[in-house]
Amino acid sequence: MQPPASEALSGLAPSPDRERATAAPAVASAVAAEPGSFRDRNGAVFYRDGEILRGISAKALANWERLAATPFFQEFTAQGSIVRTERLPDDEARSFGDWAAVLRHEKVPFISYPYEWTFGMLKDAALLHLDLMQAALGAGLILKDSSAYNIQWRGAQPVFIDIPSFEVLGKGEPWVGYRQFCELFLYPLFLQAYKGVDYRPWLRGQIDGIPAGSLRPLLSARDLIRPGVLLHVLAQDSLQRRYAGKPQNVRSSIAKAGFDKQLIVRNVEGLRKIVTGLQPGGSKTVWADYDRTHSYDQAEFEAKCAFVREASRHRRWRMAWDLGCNTGTFSRLIAEQADHVVSMDGDWMAIEHLYQAQQNRPDQQKILPLVVNLSDPSPAQGWRGLERRSLPERGRPELTLCLALIHHIVISANIPMRDFIGWLAGLGTSLVIEFVSRSDEMVQTLLANKDDQYGDYQQDQFEACLAEHYRIRADQSLKGGKRHIYFCTPKSEP
Asked: In what order do the strands lie in the sheet with 51-56?
């Protein structure tokens, strides 16, 4: 079973269209229901004046009280691995409808999805889930859901957000979330580690993950001896085929047989050992070594850095986006003046380098690395398009960085320059953008094997497009005039 939509913790009120699409509880007008929060019938997420609230049933309340009293919950919360949660006073909770209780959650800066994560991010999220399982089992609890969407990020730190997933483990009960863990964590990791295949399109295409029956045909005889394949793929696929379409209640049958909790413990321990040993497969990507191979000499690169740093000092930013961030050099510059930075690039290995580099940095919790192809960004999807949101719906930035990207968008992806700048302007943010001229070797390389149908790709037309939406506050020539960088603010700003 899928958990309540994790985007509920983004701290963003849904759009009017989304509110109309879902019936809101009969409570105060300032309260808006989260339209993606419908899969768990024991709770629902809603918003009030920027707060993230969750109504819970009597059953979920009993589980919450048990969970909140455990030392492991307090320890994981204190270290930031579980979202901070508190119960509203009963007199306040009564105003939100017929719930047994109402919880208030900490906001997550920006919601992301597993199909936007690097291998290392998905692996670390899986390990956090297994660590929580181990700790919960020691306290007589279990995670009933094992969805990767239950984990979000505070910068490069994973944080578990679906509190009602914790419930008391009944005697003889199996781990009902095991199959979901395999489909949304283990099989995508196997796909990349064992076959060198990018799992992100698979997860984006199937909201419930990769079934064992889809992964099994991809495995060779050699793969059968790899850790975890026989037990967690072949055995799972065979079991699912055996019971498919049959009326037996497998969960009840297991419980009646006296399922031993130690079987779950050993399974979790085994999975943790397997996941820990996985490494990403696949060849080296184009931009993985950008820090060493960019086309600037040192003086020009420092001039570009100085311009970006000065532009970022225009004001303090709550949220900034770095589009086409490569390995994050400029993300770190603007992080000095921003509360949070979302760093996006289509090159998964460049983003992996950024993620790994952020692990031990002081700004670890400020920069969220995501694998996003900006010519085909993640769409709204799920039931009625409400469960997973598009990028702008999850939270618009106040500053957008767009460096050495426009030529890839226009020439490589064949997106008209006016359209792309119009999309940027639609974000309503200040903008630092770099134009790479036709005389630059990078543009010449892109045009070498293409028909030159890009008559709009000229600096004067680029500046005209900017002028339609922005005021250019500062600009500077770079690389002897081959490139030009601009700092712009929306015309709507004074």
From this structure: 31-33, 43-48, 51-56, 101-105, 85-87
